[in-house]
Amino acid sequence: MPRRLRLILLVLSGLVLTVVFVAVIALDVLLQPDRFTAMLQSQARAAGLELNLANPATPTLFPRPALDLRGITLSAQDANMPILLAARGRLALPWRTLFGGPTAITQLQIDAPRVDLDALEAWLTALPARPEGASPNIPRIDTGVSISRGSVVRGNQLLLDNVALETGNLVSGQTFPLRMSATTASGTPLLLVLSTTPRIQGNSLQLDNIALHLSQGSALALHLYGSAHWHVEADATANLSGTLDQASAGQYVVSLALTPADQNNPLLLALKLDGPNNHADLHLPPLALAHWWGQLGNGREAQLTLPPGSGHVEAAKIESGDISIEGFTLQAGDNVPAASSAAAPPKPAASKYP
Are 227 and 206 in contact (CB under 8 A)? Predict the structure, then answer.
């Protein structure tokens, strides 16, 4: 190779390296990873959580501006067990942020997160009660969320694996999509697809055009449509109806109606199900039911009691694992007929002795 050509190539290589070096420095200066890390940690701290990263956030430019997060740990403050562990995360940023625009995130991507339900429940239980009369917090998803290769555990017990989640932004008046897939500990695939149009007005959240599809492999598929409204914890209404397809039993007609609490009655869920040889008409208080369910795993304090609610269930056959029950009927509530009193014991036979 001629000496002049070698010099030209060396000069060009030096220029390319210089441009790359300057671009890397400029990218770090423009994106300012520390401000995004500080913003996330501040938001977590406001919710009683601590967010830590194994390494400082790393900026990238292609295919679009983003920050790579490594070794994510999310824990309740002063807790020993983390709520979430993730190998890697990524914050996708709008191009305007690169040129000095506001601090904004367009999508949050998390790879291989591990969520511990025990730690999550402990954090929720420790949250302070909302002051009486204070405005409720409307659920918000300001950015799209993408989760891949996730898992849900309770201590050392695996509940869900291969969790994948995709959501859009929760913006008033725009369709909000959500799709989640996973496999159970036994390998059964689960799929949840939700679409709705939220409308946020003041301190209330209205969900219109709800379309919910839930399936468990090829054995079961639930399809519900309707609307819902939420204002505070027990001030909620919902009306959903649809079908439940069970491969081994046929198709059922399902309806759900949620009525808000008042001075005399708690938040109440009315569930009706009609299908081949199976019928159910139940009225369940969701908050009390959730408390009852939580008490089941409360160790020494757990007591075997019937779940709260009223209504009746008629099932021709119930199968769970190796257990099979036929002709099952359950009636609960104030209208249950009282059990007949036991027959009086027979009088002792007269003795032949005085």
Answer: yes
Number of H helices, E strands in the chain: 5, 16
Query: CB within 8 A of 274, min separation 6: which ones?
Result: 252, 253, 280
Give the residue, 8 or 288, on which the prediction is more confident: 288
Mean pLDDT of the chain: 76
Mean pLDDT of 320-335: 71
Alpha helices in the chain (DSSP H): 3-31, 33-46, 95-98, 117-126, 286-296
The alpha carbon of 178 is separated from its chain's Cα centroid by a whole number of angstroms, namely: 11
Mean pLDDT of 241-254: 87
Whole-Å CA distances, 273 to 242, 243, 283: 10, 9, 12
Lookup: tokens for 328: 């099952």
Identity (one letter) of the amino acid at 207? L
Cβ atoms within 10 A of the Cβ of 183, count? 16
β pairing state of 107-116 and 144-154 = parallel
Q: Residue 59 — left, alpha, or beta (φ > 0 → left; ψ -120 to 50 → alpha)?
A: beta
Query: What end-to-end distance do the CA atoms of the chain give, in Å?
Result: 137
The predicted model scores a pTM of 0.73
Check: CB of residue 309 under 8 Å from CB of residue 281: no
Question: Where are the strands (E) in 141-188, listed by range?
Answer: 144-154, 157-167, 176-184
Residue bearing tokens 């890397």: 24
CB 167 within 8 A of CB 144: yes
Residue that has been written with the tokens 């149009």 in this structure = 197
| Nearest residue to 162 via CA among 170, 154, 172, 152 | 152
DSSP for residue 173: T
**159, 183 Cβ separation under 8 angstroms:** no
Does 62 score more than 60 pLDDT?
yes
DSSP alpha helix (H) spans, 47-184:
95-98, 117-126
Predicted pLDDT at 95: 65
Question: What is the C-alpha separation between 48 and 103, in angstroms, rounded?
Answer: 22
